[in-house]
TrEMBL record:
Broad EC category: oxidoreductase
Entry GO CC: cytosol
Pfam family, one: PaaA_PaaC
Protein name, entry field: 1,2-phenylacetyl-CoA epoxidase subunit A
PANTHER family associated with the record: 1,2-PHENYLACETYL-COA EPOXIDASE, SUBUNIT A, PHENYLACETIC ACID DEGRADATION PROTEIN PAA
Listed Gene3D superfamilies: 1.20.1260.10
Origin species: Nocardiopsis eucommiae
One term of GO molecular function: phenylacetyl-CoA 1,2-epoxidase activity
Signal peptide region: none
Amino acid sequence: ADEALQAEFDARIAANQRVEPRDWMPEAYRRTLVRQVSQHAHSEIIGMQPEGDWIASAPSLRRKAILLAKVQDEAGHGLYLYAAAETLGVDRDDLTERLIEGRQKYSSIFNYPSLSYADVGVIGWLVDGAAICNQVPLCRTSFGPYARAMVRICKEESFHQRQGYELLMRMMEGTEGQRRMVQDAVDRWWWPSLMMFGPPDAESPNTQQSMTWGIKIDTNDDLRQRFVDMTVPQAERLGVTLPDPDLVWNAERGHHDFGTPDWDELKQVIKGDGPKNAERVSRRRAAHEKGAWVREAATAYARKQQEATV
Ligand code: 3HC
């Protein structure tokens, strides 16, 4: 019977049909999805911290309102993704425990400090720009709930990228000091944004299997290349230089050649030794502990409601 179920699953994947929670799926497929979707959700929630630090210091009411909306969107992205993960039989409280205890990962990019207000623009432009490159293909990922969450997230992601780029355009039309702030932020966030796409394909243990299952549509290196090609003209229009002396258009390839990211740095950051890992996780733990009373109150209220209907 399992062979028939496996054959039906393989046919579904081969036909680019969606796998839904009630469909039979190989245990390894389910486990890979729990790993990727929950880590994606953790990334959205932790990702609120670098920009959240600047909400109180935004230079105008308009900028504060835009930044508030963007950070709130990230919380919503996390909730869409935890909901998608729960259709695989996991519980978001348990996933939060795994994050807080360092047993699950979140994106390396959020372990870097946001040192000036220009970082808010560069995070929107580069980090959300990289997220768009990575997430648009995931709208076609084989697991239904994940793909549908991606469609909603990508719509909001384009607002995130545009608001960041527009902020930088304004600053580049400002004073010399503002232009220097933007260039400094670009210098600090460029290479970590390239590392966000993951290790090189030759050192990516999950890519092959994830592509066979239609979970991953493109390889890490292909998406990284797509991001570089998309971003170079934007940097030129903005008037900033990207901090890579090897970055050059290669007419033969029809792509930009670029330098090699520091893969040891990525390993360090993924291991937990990045500049801000400890702070990001301890703030997430503190928020979870401070919110315990809300969960207890909601549970007590739900129990009372249930008793009232019995
Ligand atoms: N940060 C942290 N861990 C990373 C990483 C990164 N940038 N890149 C790779 N890893 C981890 C992987 O999770 C894997 O570890 P695991 O097996 O314990 O999970 C290991 O390094 C090997 O990497 P692989 O390439 O083999 O792993 P994957 O096939 O899972 O590819 C990925 C990694 C490309 C991040 C893929 O999981 C993915 O596409 N995930 C969904 C997208 C996502 O998570 N984006 C993160 C940013 S969230 C965001 O952009 C918010 C936006 O609104 C700003």
